[in-house]
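Researcher: I'd like a structural prediction for the single chain below. Treat it as a standalone chain; there are no partners to consider.
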Amino acid sequence: MCALRVSIVTNAKEDTKAYTDRIFPNDMAVLLQTEQEMLDDLGNLDVLIPGHIAVGADLIGRGSRLKLIHCGTGYNNVDVAAASGQGTYVAVTPNVAAQSVAELVFAMILTLAKRTHEFDAAMKNGGWKTTDFIGVPELRGKNFGIVGYGNIGKAAGRIARGFGMNLIAHDPHIEIEDADVTSASLDELLREADFITLHVLLNAQTKGLMSTAQFEMMKDTAILVNASRGPVVDEAAITSALEQRMIGGACLDVFEKEPLAADSRLRKLDNVILTPHIAYCANEALAGRYQFFADNCALVAAGDAPRMAVNADAVNANQG
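Model: Treating it as a single chain, here is the predicted structure.
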C-alpha cells in the first residue's frame, strides 16, 4: 500500500514528469492530473498540489483524506480556514524562485526601458536606426523602489546594486536593516522611484494596492513591475494610466484574471511588456520547488508537520 497518494494538477504532464521523476519516495503514488481528473479522484487523495486552481471549502470538504495542500509562493487561492478546520496543512514553498523572479523583473525592465523589443522588430523588418537619439535611460543612478522586502525583493535588490542603482524599500512587516537601502513609506517610494517592483503577498491589505491614486504619485517616466499577484494592481486603473501616459510604462507577469483576456486593452499598448505568469519558471526554480514538495510529502507520510505550513498552529490545535 502506498504511503501517500499525491496529485499534482497540471495540463503539461510530460514537462512536469521531468521534474518529478525520482525525487518523490518510491512508496508514494505521484499522480499528474488535470483539474477534472483530480476532482474525480479527490476522495482518494492525501496530498494536493493545486497550482493556480481555486481550492475552496467545498473542494476541501470533498477531499476527506487530504493531509496537505501544497502551494508555491502564494496561497491566496486556498481557503485556509476550511483546511484548518479539517486538519489539513497548507504549506508554501520558500525562496526557491526568488532569483528566477528577480531576473525576470530585470529582463522586462531592460526590454521596456532600452526598447530592445522595438529595435529587434525594426531590424527583422529590414529597418535600421535613423538617428542616434533613441530616448533610452541608463539604470545607473536611478532609484529602484522595492515594495515588499522579503526573499524576492532582496534578490531584486542584489541585481539592482550591480547596475549601480539607488535602493528604496517599503515593507510594513519587517525592519529594513541593509545599510544601502532607504526605508520609506509607500507614498514616498512612489514619488521617488524611477522603477518600482512589487513583491507582496495577496491579501485584504494588498488587493488593489496600486490604483489611480498611486499612479498619480509616480513620476511620469517611472516603470512599474508586477511579478507578485495580479489583483495587487487595479488592472482597469493601470490600463488607463498607460493609455494616458500617466506613467512611463509597466511590466506585468500576473493579472487579475488569468489567462489574460484575448481582447484586453493591455495587449494593444506599446508601453507595457506582458508575460504569462512565468517569473517562477526557471529550470532551477522548478527543480527546487518540486524537491521541496517531495521533502514535505515525506514528512507528512512520517506523521510529522510539513515545513512552511501557514496554518500549523491551527491544525495542531485541532489535532490536540
